[in-house]
Write a structure and sequence with these properties.
- Helices cover 38% and strands 15% of the residues.
- By secondary structure, it is an alpha/beta fold.
- The chain has an eight-stranded mixed β-sheet.
- A hairpin with a 2-residue loop joins strand 12 and strand 13.
- Helix 2 (47-56) packs parallel to helix 4 and helix 16 packs antiparallel against helix 19 (342-351).
- The longest helix has 16 residues, at 238-253.
- The relative contact order is 0.10.
Length: 413
C-alpha cells in the first residue's frame, strides 16, 4: 500500500482553502475518535515521494506540481498531526524546506513542543487548533498522547502574538465532554483573541467502529458510540445536534463566529484566509458572503461559475478524483472524462445533486420552482442547468417557489 505523501487534497473542495495536503505517519496522539487512524491504522509516510515532488515540481506535468508552481497553500494535515511524536522528526525538515521554497502552509493541529520548534522558521499563516474539551483529565482518557489543553491555549497566544491567524475546532463536539464547561470554554477562546470556532458532532462509519480498539471504545463510551453511527437515524444524534445549536447561540452572544459545514451566515473565514494566502481555493463561504453583499437570492450556473472560476488554475487537468473520492457510485456510472477544466468540474457540481458539492446539499440553497396552474415547474436556464434559490437563514425544503425572477437569470422554463 502506498504511503502518505504530499499530494492533491481531493476531499474538501469548497470547504478548505488549501488544494494540497502533506500527510505523514499514523498519529501517536492516539485520539480515540480519530477518523484517520481508524480508517488506516497502518498509515506510513512516503517521505521519498514527498521529497521527489519538492525537487521536481517545477518541471512535472501533474495537477499537484502545477498547484505548487502556482503558489497555492498546502494543508498540514487533515489526517495526522505533523507535531506528534510519530511525525515531527520527518515533518520539521520538510516544513522548513517548503517554507524556504515559498510554499504557503496551513496547519491543523493540537500543537505540542514541536509546534513551537517549527515557529522558529515558519512564516505567519492560518492555524486551526483542535480543542474538544476543557477537562484535562478527560483529555488524558480520550486523547492520551496529545498535548494538554492548557498548552494549546498557550500555543494560540503565541501564534496570535507572532502575527498568525487562528481559529479553533471543537471537533468532535460531544455533549458529555463539554456541556458543563461550554460557557467557560467559549470565554477562554474569546479571551485568547480567536474570532471563529468550528464544530462538528461526533460520527463514525462501520469501518471506523470495527477498527476501534477496546480501549478507545471504553474511553468514548457505549452511549456516545451508539448515537454517533452514521447509519443511525438523526433522532439518535438529537443530543449533539441540540447541543450544537445551544453552543452556537452562546458563541454568538459573546461575539464569536460559530462555523459549521452547513454555515449559512456571513463568515469571517474567507477574509482570514485571504489575509495570509494571496492565492487559494475558494470555500463556499466566499460565495455566501458574495450573495449576501449583493442581496441576491436567485442564482444561475453562470453566477456560480463566474464567481468561482477565477480562484482555480486555468487549463485542462485530471480532475476526476474530486468525484471518485467523495461520490464514487455517481462517478463510476456517469464519468465521461477524467480530464476537464475547472469550469467543467463546476458544471458537474451544479447539475448533479449526487455529487457532494451540489449547492442543494447545503442548507443555504434550494431548487427554484414556479407555479403554473396546479403544478410546480422547476426553473432551468438555456444550458438546462437548474436555477437555485439562496437564503442566509437556510431552507428546510429542497424546492422553493419564487415569484420574481430577475431578467438576467437566463430562465427558459
Amino acid at each position: 500500500m502506498a504511503g502518505d505523501t504530499l499530494d492533491v487534497y481531493w476531499w474538501e473542495l469548497f470547504y478548505v482553502p488549501a488544494p494540497m495536503e502533506c500527510s505523514f505517519n499514523y498519529c501517536s496522539f492516539k485520539c480515540a475518535y480519530c477518523f484517520a487512524n481508524l480508517n488506516k491504522p497502518e498509515r506510513k509516510a512516503d517521505i521519498a515521494a514527498t521529497m521527489r515532488l519538492l525537487r521536481d515540481y517545477p518541471e512535472r506535468r501533474t495537477l499537484a506540481a502545477h498547484l505548487l508552481r502556482e503558489g497555492y497553500p498546502v494543508l498540514v494535515s487533515n489526517r495526522v498531526d505533523p507535531f506528534a511524536q510519530s511525525n515531527f522528526k520527518q515533518a520539521l525538515p520538510i516544513l522548513e524546506q517548503m517554507t524556504e521554497l515559498g510554499i504557503p502552509l496551513y496547519f491543523q493541529t493540537k500543537g505540542g513542543p514541536h509546534a513551537h520548534t517549527a515557529l522558529s522558521f515558519l512564516k505567519p499563516t492560518v492555524w486551526y487548533v483542535s480543542i474538544a474539551m476543557l477537562n484535562d483529565d478527560l483529555r488524558k482518557k480520550i486523547e492520551p498522547g496529545a498535548p494538554s489543553i492548557e498548552s494549546r491555549f498557550e500555543l494560540i497566544e503565541r501564534l496570535k502574538a507572532e502575527g498568525h491567524g487562528v481559529f479553533v475546532g471543537c471537533n468532535p463536539l460531544v455533549t458529555e465532554w463539554l456541556s458543563e464547561d461550554v460557557e467557560r470554554y467559549l470565554e477562554r477562546i474569546k479571551n485568547a483573541g480567536v474570532e471563529v470556532v468550528m464544530t462538528q458532532p461526533i460520527h463514525f462509519n462501520d469501518k471506523q467502529l470495527s477498527n476501534m480498539s477496546p480501549r478507545e471504545k471504553e474511553a468514548i463510551g457505549e452511549k456516545i458510540l451508539e448515537r454517533s453511527q452514521t447509519t443511525r437515524t438523526r433522532s439518535l444524534q438529537h443530543t449533539d445536534i441540540m447541543f450544537e445549536r445551544e453552543f452556537g447561540l452562546l458563541a454568538r452572544d459573546i461575539g464569536l463566529e460559530h462555523y459549521t459545514f452547513h454555515n449559512t451566515r456571513y463568515s469571517k473565514l474567507p477574509s482570514l484566509y485571504s489575509r495570509f494566502f494571496s492565492k487559494r481555493f475558494p470555500v463556499v463561504e466566499d460565495f455566501i458572503n458574495h450573495l449576501i453583499d449583493a442581496k441576491q437570492n436567485v442564482v444561475s450556473f453562470d453566477d456560480y461559475a463566474n464567481f468561482f472560476e477565477p480562484y482555480f488554475p486555468t487549463g485542462t487537468f485530471n480532475l476526476g478524483s474530486y468525484f471518485r473520492t467523495t461520490s464514487y457510485k455517481f462517478w463510476k456510472y456517469n464519468a465521461t472524462s477524467e480530464h476537464m477544466t475547472f469550469r467543467q468540474l463546476l458544471a458537474i457540481c451544479w447539475k448533479y445533486r449526487e455529487t457532494r458539492y451540489h449547492p442543494a446539499n447545503h442548507s443555504a440553497f434550494s431548487y427554484a420552482v414556479v407555479k403554473e396552474g396546479k403544478d410546480y415547474v422547476q426553473l432551468v436556464d438555456e444550458q438546462d442547468m437548474p436555477i437555485m434559490v439562496f437564503d442566509p437563514d437556510g431552507f428546510d425544503e429542497l424546492f422553493i417557489e419564487v415569484e420574481n425572477v430577475p431578467d438576467d437569470a437566463g430562465v427558459v422554463s
